[in-house]
Amino acid sequence: QVQLVESGGGLVQPGGSLRLSCAAYGSRLDYYGIGWFRQAPGKEREGVSCKNTDGGTTYYANSVEGRFTISRDNAKNMVYLQMNDLKPEDTGHYYCAAGIGLPNDGLADPVRYDYWGQGIAVTVSS
Known about the structure:
With 126 residues, the chain is mostly beta strands. It has no helices and eleven strands. Strands 2, 4, 5, 6, 9, 10 and 11 form a seven-stranded mixed sheet that branches. Strands 1-3-8-7 form a four-stranded antiparallel sheet, with no helix packed on it.
């Protein structure tokens, strides 16, 4: 059992940056693949950035490629999402997720993840 707690969201102007953090409790995070997902009002949850268990495979949605960076610190049981050059379309609720045995070609599929945080709001607006 893994409990995930996100932090670092908020309101930011277009072009600004935020770093989301996800703390894992109850189990070592290095047993899991991890991912960041987001959901905008009226839209389905989508994979933003994900990383497999050994960190050898990383996924970025086309819309965030080159602007967002996912990282994990297994020693601290933490996952991060550095978001730069934020755009209004990045607005949404962001969720941290963890899963066991994630296939490399299925990292962005939310149904493959076993544990989810409560989510945190990110609003990009002037």
